[in-house]
């Protein structure tokens, strides 16, 4: 299998199975209900793990929770820890409801402060960081490869941090920040006094705490390439740790369409999207674009995803055709080639239209969609209406038959005639 790597700007072959393939995907900063775009790295990470395991790999996924951050202090002055804990629960609930299972580990920054402090101490000892006024900064000039991941020109680096007279060089970034009692209601003790870690060091420390100094894949949104991931590379490689071998950045979700661009705040949360469209439509939606490309979210694109879901589900009401094992290799080839889910989805539709139901069931299961293969049992009210309609038709009472057909449709069901006689009840697409 090969995947696109941001660092080398090329497709990189994964080590042969069974690997291991250790994956660290940056998770959310927890201060509100996460928006649907935040679900993308989660979904991509879980699908990659699923596919790798299905092809004989020992694959693990770590997805961190950033529960120490300025955004949390800003959102809940005086109660930031409570908000972070609540928003963590929301995120776990909402992602669990996608029905893909959960990552192997979900480390939290608040539970990793000791490792983070230790990491910073090593950087200071090695001359790659310095303490100043209770803060600690990474010395960018000390790391020759700085800017390689993101392609930043060293003289144009903007960290996006508040300017600080304590920095030796404006390009330097914070590893540790002294506590500001007026705005920050949580802090930890450290060799540099009370304070809290910077965002970037959290991920270097948590990834290495779990995987050690080298692992195969680091994922996250394209918006994290700079400064977050550039700084992770600098922190870890400055200490001589190889760190991530492949940098897998997912494309961003864009809110488009007339309704979305007019709606307040122009966002939809994971929760709202699952509640409105159902988890299967959400997953099919994510399948429609390559993981590296932007994906457009709007009522129109979600309607299209829901229609595709119905087509895939309704395939299971048709008679199964012969089983062609060679078909599976065509499907596998799409995913092994940079995890091309739109191409894989096209194969699933092909199987649906030709009745290759065993292959379809197996393919859907890779993406957490095996539930589409479970035939819905019609409720008693529906089967009773269907029986009456069958009788009306047998008596050639077409008026009653049409009325009952409409009543069934109003309940979301239709009767499909079987070639051998009789009928099957299927959910209306
Ligand atoms: Zn991160």
Pick out its properties.
429 residues, alpha/beta, Rossmann fold, 3 domains, 15 helices, 42% helix, elongated, binds zinc ion
What does this structure look like?
- This protein is of the alpha/beta class.
- The chain has three domains: 2-250, HUPs (Rossmann fold), CATH 3.40.50; 254-373, no CATH class; 380-427.
- It has 15 helices and 14 strands.
- Helix 9 (279-287) crosses helix 10.
- Mean pLDDT is 93; it is low at 260-264.
- The structure holds zinc ion.
- Zinc ion binds next to loops.
Can you give the mean pLDDT?
A: 93
**Main sheet: strand order:** 4-3-9-10
Order of helices and strands: EEEHEHHHEEEEHEHEEHHHEHHHHHHEE
Please summarize the sheet with the most strands: 4 strands, parallel
Outline the secondary-structure elements.
Blueprint: E1 2-5, E2 10-13, E3 21-25, H1 39-54, E4 59-63, H2 70-75, H3 80-96, H4 113-125, E5 129-132, E6 135-138, E7 173-178, E8 195-197, H5 199-211, E9 214-221, H6 225-238, E10 243-250, E11 253-255, H7 258-262, H8 270-277, H9 279-287, E12 295-297, H10 299-314, H11 326-336, H12 341-354, H13 357-366, H14 380-394, H15 398-410, E13 413-417, E14 423-427
Parallel strand pairs: 3-4, 3-9, 9-10, 11-12
Antiparallel strand pairs: 1-2, 5-6, 6-7, 7-8, 13-14
Helix pairs in contact: 4-5, 5-6, 8-9, 9-10, 11-12, 12-13, 14-15
Bound molecules: zinc ion (ZN).
Zinc ion (ZN) binds at residues 26, 203, 228.
């Amino acid at each position: 299998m090969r995947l696109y790597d941001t660092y080398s700007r090329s497709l990189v072959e994964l080590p042969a199975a069974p690997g291991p393939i250790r994956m660290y995907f940056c998770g959310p900063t927890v201060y509100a209900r996460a928006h649907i775009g935040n679900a993308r790295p989660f979904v991509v990470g879980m699908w990659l793990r699923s596919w790798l395991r299905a092809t004989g790999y020992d694959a693990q996924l770590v997805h961190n929770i950033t529960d120490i951050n300025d955004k949390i202090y800003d959102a809940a002055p005086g109660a930031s820890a409570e908000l972070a804990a609540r928003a963590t629960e929301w995120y776990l609930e909402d992602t669990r409801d996608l029905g893909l299972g959960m990552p192997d580990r979900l480390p939290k920054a608040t539970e990793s402060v000791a490792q983070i402090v230790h990491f910073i101490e090593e950087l200071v000892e090695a001359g790659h960081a310095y303490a100043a006024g209770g803060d600690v900064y990474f010395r960018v000039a000390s790391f020759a490869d700085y800017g390689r991941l993101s392609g930043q020109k060293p003289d144009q680096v903007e960290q996006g941090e508040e300017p600080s007279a304590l920095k030796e060089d404006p390009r330097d970034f914070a590893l540790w920040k002294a506590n500001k009692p007026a705005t920050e209601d949580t802090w930890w003790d450290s060799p540099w006094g009370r304070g809290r870690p910077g965002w970037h060091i959290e991920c270097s420390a948590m990834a290495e705490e779990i995987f050690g100094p080298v692992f195969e894949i680091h994922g996250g949104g394209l918006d994290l390439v700079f400064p977050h991931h550039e700084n992770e590379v600098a922190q870890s490689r400055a200490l001589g740790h190889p760190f991530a071998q492949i940098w897998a950045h997912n494309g961003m979700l864009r809110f488009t369409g007339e309704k979305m661009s007019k709606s307040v705040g122009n966002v939809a949360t994971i929760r709202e999207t699952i509640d409105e469209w159902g988890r299967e439509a959400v997953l099919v939606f994510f399948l429609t674009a390559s993981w590296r490309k932007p994906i457009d979210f709007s009522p129109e694109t979600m309607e299209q995803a829901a229609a595709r879901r119905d087509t895939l589900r309704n395939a299971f009401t048709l008679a199964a055709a012969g089983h062609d094992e060679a078909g599976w290799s065509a499907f596998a080839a799409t995913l092994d080639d940079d995890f091309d889910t739109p191409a894989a989805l096209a194969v699933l539709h092909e199987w649906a239209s030709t009745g290759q139901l065993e292959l379809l069931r197996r393919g859907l299961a890779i993406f957490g969609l095996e539930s589409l293969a479970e035939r819905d049992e019609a409720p008693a009210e529906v089967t009773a209406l269907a029986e009456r309609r069958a009788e009306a038709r047998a008596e050639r009472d077409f008026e009653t038959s049409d009325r009952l057909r409409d009543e069934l449709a109003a309940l979301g069901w239709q009767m499909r005639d079987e070639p051998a006689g009789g009928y099957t009840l299927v959910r209306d697409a």
